[in-house]
Specification:
It is built from four helices and eight strands. With 143 residues, it is an alpha/beta fold. The radius of gyration is 21 Å and the shape is elongated.
């Protein structure tokens, strides 16, 4: 009976070459996504410059006639990405916020509203995902 062969252990350089796909003088970076249950970004921007709304396209659609002056922006990045749907539901139930953007394929959620309402929506999301769904969460940052 033939003994099983043990695969050769890769060197650190071989692993880095595989990750960064080094080909001669060209380097291609491959971004890896590890599935997990986590909130990797929770941020509140208070009273952003109007150009931020424009560049995020938050002034289009049903927000087209709405004045964004004085409204804050809350941003969440979640994994798995489908969690953004749950986060949007939690946000609108926790505060009087509008969902400015939600992507169930990348896990991004942007909410807008009065500063206190956005704070409440982001804080409730972090609490809910940490305590009820047992996600790893990051601290909330703010501007």
């Amino acid at each position: 009976m033939k003994e099983p062969t043990v695969p050769r252990r890769l060197t650190r350089q071989e692993i880095l070459d595989d990750i960064f796909k080094v080909h001669g003088d060209r380097t291609r970076v491959v971004q890896l996504s590890v599935p997990g249950r986590e909130i990797t970004l929770a941020h509140v921007i208070g009273r952003p410059d109007p150009c931020v709304y424009t560049n995020l396209c938050l002034e289009i659609g049903f927000h087209a006639d709405f004045k964004q002056d004085g409204r804050s922006i809350g941003i969440l990045q979640l994994s798995p990405p489908e969690s953004a749907v749950i986060a949007a539901d939690v946000a609108v139930k926790a505060g009087a916020v509008d969902v400015g953007f939600m992507d169930r394929f990348s896990g991004a959620l942007i909410v807008t509203g009065a500063r206190a309402e956005v704070d409440a929506a982001i804080e409730e999301n972090v609490r809910f995902f940490r305590d009820d769904l047992h996600y790893r969460v990051c601290p909330i940052s703010e501007q």
